[in-house]
Amino acid sequence: MGSPRRYAAIAYGGGNAFRQSAGQLSALLTWTTACGAHYLGDLDPAGVEILLGVQDQIPNWQLTPHCGLYRWLLAHGHRRPLETVPTAACIAQLDTLFPLDIVAGIFRLWSDGRRIP
Length: 117
Prior knowledge:
By secondary structure, this protein is mainly alpha-helical. It has helices at about 15-20, 20-30, 45-55, 65-75, 90-95, 100-110, and strands at about 35-40, 60-65, 80, 115.
């Protein structure tokens, strides 16, 4: 076995297909002997709900948002109109997922009626 690396694999889920294939993520984590996975999805309510849904499906694995890339998106991402209004439940769960600086950025983004795909 080689020396440890930062990333063992990169998986593309294609939006909601990521939630539907959570079992395959679990198998990939086992196969690569990874200790967890980072998630990067759209900065809209659906993207947050996908992360929450997959976390619920693979409770034995650590799935965390890739905060560095989310910060980059908030600073540089192309903003588009928000297609769905975030629910109070979705907004309430932001601080369980992200550090406060990212929560504040997402809240500003959504308050402006924008999203970052």
